[in-house]
């Protein structure tokens, strides 16, 4: 019995997490914040926004996407190490998969993913280290 895969491409960009498959694509702004008491969107003069998606993991509760930094303490980790399994990248993946399914419907098959990484991670002296850490992340 052959198992069909749902093929999904992902680009873990510094500005947005992008996903694409046969049904279509989407972008989720790469904003992540820990769940806190900060709610800047209610300040005078700012328009009301839809509350960002909240994701809970073993590492805590996080907001992701547009407006996340208005609802919690921003997580601003821009080095390549974040791409090897940092908690904020995991919640961004989980949130992006959630948004993808909200837009295109449930994924009903095992997912086969192709993940795009920066060229700097795959070349030079640190390439083997990053590849090993990413594979085990």
Provide a quick synopsis of the model.
The protein is built from three helices and eight strands; from the N terminus they run ββββββαβαβα. The protein is an alpha+beta fold and 137 residues long.
Please explain how this structure is put together.
It is a single chain. The chain is an alpha+beta fold and 137 residues long. The chain is 23% helix and 31% strand. The protein has helices at residues 68-71, 87-104, 127-136, and strands at 6-12, 16-21, 24-29, 32-35, 53-57, 60-64, 72-74, 111-116. Strands 3-2-1-8 form a four-stranded mixed β-sheet, with helices on one face. The protein has a four-stranded antiparallel β-sheet with strand order 5-6-4-7. It starts with 5 loop residues before the first strand and ends with a helix.
List the uncertain runs: none
N-to-C CA distance = 30 Å
User: Counting H and I runs of at least 4 residues, what is the number of helices?
Assistant: 3
Looking at the chains present, what oligomeric state does this protein adopt?
single chain
Shape: globular
Q: What class, by secondary structure content?
A: alpha+beta
Task: Give the averaged pLDDT, no decimals.
Answer: 83
Share of helical residues = 10-25%
Our estimate of the beta-strand percent is 25-35%
Main sheet record: 4 strands, mixed
Computed over alpha carbons, the radius of gyration is 16 Å
Number of distinct beta strands? 8
H and E string: EEEEEEHEHEH
Q: How are the strands of the largest sheet arranged?
A: 3-2-1-8
What's the structural blueprint in terms of helices and strands?
Blueprint: E1 6-12, E2 16-21, E3 24-29, E4 32-35, E5 53-57, E6 60-64, H1 68-71, E7 72-74, H2 87-104, E8 111-116, H3 127-136
Parallel strand pairs: 1-8
Antiparallel strand pairs: 1-2, 2-3, 4-6, 4-7, 5-6
